[in-house]
Design brief:
Length: about 230
């Protein structure tokens, strides 16, 4: 298994964000991490990224305990654009290429062309939407083994949402797995292999999307039924 989680719990002061999570994720899947705001999605992603260290339980990626060594396997798109506004797009790519051995400058240029992004443009001069596209470019230009996207379409218009998902499908490393955390179920359903519902820090459903929708119910309707929304 690519990701193995055992008895993971995480609290912020007296509030339990993750409650005894047990989970195994394989390679080669696109997985939706789905739940309302406050369900624990971002906390779980930060644990996987090694950004949160104070928790109980065991978390491993490729058999290694999450930490500095596992960051080399993961390409992460946070819910806010990368803080590289002082650099040009090209300089941001150069920075990533120096830091990550799996960063492909050729792929970065290809994605920039498809997004109509000028590599010489200063990131701070770009619109908010284009800054988010630069973050997507940086994330997808790596040949990682696990891609993590935290609300990748929350700030983009409906037309651009399809473009974002099409880019993910086209450019992620196909032997890798992809985790997409979002509450916009309708837009993400078409690209998912598996869906994981997180509710109040607990996993309440983890299934193949085709199994969930085999009775004619959409993933969004299944989500609404589970969360009564």
């Amino acid at each position: 298994m690519l990701v193995e989680i055992e008895n993971l719990s995480k609290s912020y002061k007296k509030q339990l964000a993750l409650d005894n999570v047990n989970l195994s994720l394989p390679s080669g899947k696109i997985i939706g991490l789905l739940g309302p705001n406050g369900s624990g999605k971002t906390t779980l992603l930060k644990v996987l990224m090694g950004l949160l260290r104070q928790y109980s339980g065991n978390v491993k990626i490729k058999g290694l305990t999450v930490g500095e060594s596992t960051k080399a396997f993961i390409s992460y798109l946070p819910d806010k654009p990368h803080s590289l506004s002082f650099k040009t797009v090209q300089e941001a790519c150069n920075f990533f290429a120096d830091f990550f051995e799996d960063f492909s400058m050729e792929k970065a240029q290809l994605i920039a062309n498809s997004l109509d992004i000028d590599m010489k443009a200063r990131i701070k001069s770009l619109s908010k939407g284009n800054q988010e596209k630069v973050s997507l470019l940086l994330t997808l230009s790596r040949n990682a083994e696990l891609y993590i996207f935290d609300e990748p379409i929350a700030g983009v218009d409906p037309v651009a949402r399809d473009q974002v998902f099409n880019l993910i499908l086209e450019h992620y490393h196909k032997e890798a797995s992809v985790i997409i955390a979002t509450h916009l179920i309708h837009y993400v359903e078409r690209i998912l292999d598996e869906a994981l519902f997180l509710k109040k820090g607990k996993i309440v459903l983890y299934k193949n999307v085709k199994e969930i929708t085999s009775q004619g119910i959409s993933l969004e309707d299944s989500f609404k039924e589970e969360f009564k929304c």
